[in-house]
Amino acid sequence: MSTTIIAHRGASRSAPENTMSAFELAYQSGAEGIETDVQLTKDNVPVIMHDERLKRTTNGTGYIKDYTLSQLQQLDAGTWFSTKFSGETIISLHELLQWLRNKQLYLNIELKNNKIDYKNLENIVVDMISQFQLQNRTTISTFNPKSVRRLSTIANQIDIAFLTSKRRKRLVENAKLLGASAVHIKYPLLSNRLIQQCKQENIPVRVYTVNSTNRMQRCFDYGSDGIFTDIPEQALQCREQFNNQST
Questions:
Q1: What is the pTM of this model?
Q2: 84: which of 106, 135, 205, 246 is 20 to 30 A away, CA to CA?
Q3: What domains appear along the chain, each with residue ranges and CATH number?
Q4: Ranges under pLDDT 70 in the chain
């Protein structure tokens, strides 16, 4: 089975991360999936943003949790990347799902609740995915073990991934005990042994964030189920070359 190419925060090397421009570019490039991040606003609306704070990727300051959606959407989320993207806005999860609904794209939603454990975030996101009937092509991932447990009780039809950047003993066993149905690992944790272990347990393993050709080829060679990359177009080309060499 071919490794799925998933655009990390959209085509984030070519456009400001987690914006409609980045997602649209990823889609146009042929990416097979979109990875994004969700925070919760003051009025309990899930929005697309990696950081808990606004400063790095907008002209705002402070925490997302202290602003309403309408306040956040007044901010500029593109100029920091390039003046070409001036006026790009923060989008809600609802807007992203509406855009994605009729496109043949896999979706990975990372809940950014390992630093701020937003109340009811899991329920809100699961309900919205169900509203758009995207359960069968969505993975919800999180670094927060408690969140994985909560998801396992409410997201029966949705793939749940335990995210980790740390070496852990019995990773696959513990992920399953939490209620996860997939494992997402940082590239340095990748090993053929782990991939084979996941395959034996029928647990998908996806790798982040993979941007170099050598690393991509290693992921393909080991048979990882997916890679998250900032450069989906190049990753697709790399996979094609790998497949041609393998046949």
A1: 0.98
A2: 106
A3: 4-246 (3.20.20.190)
A4: 1
